[in-house]
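User: Um, any thoughts?
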Amino acid sequence: MATIQNSKLTRDLSISLLLYTLPVLAIYLYFKLSNGVVSESHITLPSFLEFAKPAFTNIRTWGLTVFMLVLGIIEFSAGLYDDQWTGEERKIDIISFLAPKLILPPVIAFFSLTVLPVLIPNLENSLSWVPFWGGFFLIAIADDLTQYWYHRLHHQVPFLWRFHRTHHSAPYMGMAMLSRQNFIYTIFFSQIYLTATLTYLGLGLPALFVLVLKSFITLGAHSSIAWDKPLYKYKVLHPIAWVLERLISTPATHHAHHADTSGDGVGHFKGNFGNMFFIWDVIFGTGLITRKFPKSYGIKSYKQEEWYAQFLWPIFKSKKEGSALADGVFSVPLKPKAENATPSPALYEQAQS
């Protein structure tokens, strides 16, 4: 079994390396066929997108926050949380929403303005000659494929899982839990630094458009408003649904990832790792498409740990007996151990059982 898993991992990593090179190859061939000529028209924003630049800039700075709040209010008004947003759930969601907006900007600024000039000196704006479409293609793949692996590894590596389980502990889906993460998972969000590096190298404009587009897709995938249901209901829309659900994350595919069980044939917490693009799950065989929604969400062994334990573990531990975040507890066993079984020093609590 271990040999099979290692073989699959090697294969998937090899495919990933190929995917990372595709935009680079496309840009190379483009200039090869144009005899290496770089003109102003290559690197400026296409005219049909020029009008949208101010909107994308404002959306990135404050618009997304407003959009999240408005969508959250609509969800609450519609009663989509079934009165589950109480106690520790409310605290961890609010803290996780506000903290990154205070913590990440100075961290990314320090990385971009202080660290990168030392690591890659004299390379600032060195990729500014890359066409907008090339930069968009490059960042879209590099950013989202990197996040796919970051996300997947946090589900498949027992030690890493505890830094991500906070996101899966919510017994509901929606704007309230979108940012719900352990602070270490957030700070070491690998693709943030990759995109910051590409921006430093001169791809800031494509990065703006990619990140705004990605934000709307991930917002829509987490929302409790199932905008994709009409695509499955009306036969005339089925072709659109077929393409969309394989290309990007939709509520149906991402809600399945947050289900508290996989025994119903709908939940798929061991896959559906894609964030903006679901196509990674299609390529690597980790996807499940059912066009159905789970009946319940979260972690079956969830003990409503204190907000500080969920957000700041391992600095602060949970006081809940048996919690995977408690002091001296590596994880929670999936099923009771046999009386004569030898205790395991690091039993792994899966996202759900």
User: Anything to note?
Assistant: Confidence is low (pLDDT under 50) at residues 332-348. DSSP finds 15 helices and no strands in the chain. Residues 12-34+52-227 form one domain.
